[in-house]
Specification:
The chain is α+β, with helices and mostly antiparallel strands. The chain is built from nine helices and eleven strands.
């Protein structure tokens, strides 16, 4: 019943561009590469190993392909597990700086062997590109639509038709264009400032600033709301759930109209009136989930569908 569909090919763009950059620049500078060329350096930046240009390029491309394959396999496996609402993309976040490592190593080799400049790795630019890739991954996290169910009577006001699948009920994600753009800009600015502070050996302030940048980049994909038989999970486009609401603790779920500014004072994870925690990126409708301890408002244009999924999951057919 379940399978991987709509594989996110666009998320392979950073790896593909890195691979094409190495191959293209190697072809462009081929006639200017010395043979043998310096390929290994000591801690002082002095060459202590040499090999042919072809050997260097093949090693870099092979390593790049190996890491790209590991990243793609991890993404495929996560997609296959998404039917149980357990898709955590931390692996892609960890792989991003490693996928960018080979092109930056190649740039350093070109600098020394072609440009005649001292060997050095561009850590700040590498960090900035890593932040950019993180933001791109978060912004391109789209729904996969892996759940399927047999046709049946539709739920009024929602997009659900028939009974929900046994292990996968509903997934919806909200991220308006303005929200994605603002999160990307703020995240990249804080990331670049944090990288500069770290390079300047201001580690405390640098780590704090970089952490804010990472958090903003993770927000670029908006909130993801997942309903499955045991709980409702709220998470960002990447990472583990921010909040898990057990299904047996939910008293009711209703469609609720609200104002982000008047009721919650803004967007993001907000505290509102009547012990209500809001996960706000849009308006004016959302799914209000009531429990004995707290209430939770999940802002979404598909509030009726989300509420219907929660009610069906609470009372399985």
């Amino acid at each position: 019943m379940f399978g991987v569909r709509n594989y996110p090919v666009q998320q392979e763009a950073p790896s593909a561009l890195s691979f094409l950059f190495i191959a293209g620049s190697a072809a462009y500078f081929w006639d200017r590469l010395p043979n043998p060329m310096a390929s290994h350096f000591d801690w002082n930046g002095e060459p202590n190993g040499w090999s042919s240009p072809l050997t260097n390029i093949l090693i870099l491309l092979a390593t790049m392909l190996m890491m790209w394959g590991i990243d793609a396999l991890g993404r495929y496996q996560n997609l296959a597990l998404e039917r149980t609402a357990k898709r955590y993309n931390w692996f892609q976040m960890v792989m991003a700086p490693f996928l960018l490592l080979m092109p930056f190593v190649w740039i350093s080799l070109l600098d020394f062997n072609v440009g005649g400049r001292p060997f050095g790795f561009r850590w700040q630019l590498h960090l900035a590109c890593t932040f950019a890739v993180w933001g791109y991954l978060a912004a391109t996290e789209n729904l996969r639509g892996l759940g399927e169910s047999e046709p049946g009577p539709p739920v009024e006001g929602s997009e659900i038709e028939g009974d929900l699948p046994e292990k996968f009920c509903l997934m919806t994600q909200e991220a308006p264009v303005w929200w994605t753009a603002l999160s990307l800009v703020i995240g990249l600015v804080f990331g670049l400032i944090g990288g500069g502070l770290l390079l300047g050996k201001q580690f405390g302030l640098g780590l704090l600033t970089a952490a804010i940048g990472v958090m903003m980049l993770c927000f670029a994909g908006g909130f993801r709301f997942v309903v499955h038989p045991k709980a409702v999970e709220v998470s960002l486009a990447v990472g583990p759930p921010l909040k898990t609401i057990p299904m047996d603790k939910i008293l009711r779920a209703t469609v609720h109209e609200f104002s982000p500014l008047q009721d919650f004072g803004g967007w993001g994870v907000r505290m509102g009136r009547n012990k209500t925690t809001g996960f706000i990126v849009s308006g004016p409708t959302g799914a209000l989930i009531e429990t004995e301890a707290r209430n939770y408002l999940l802002s979404t244009e598909k509030a009726a569908t989300l509420v219907a999924a929660i009610e069906q999951a609470r009372v399985p057919s």
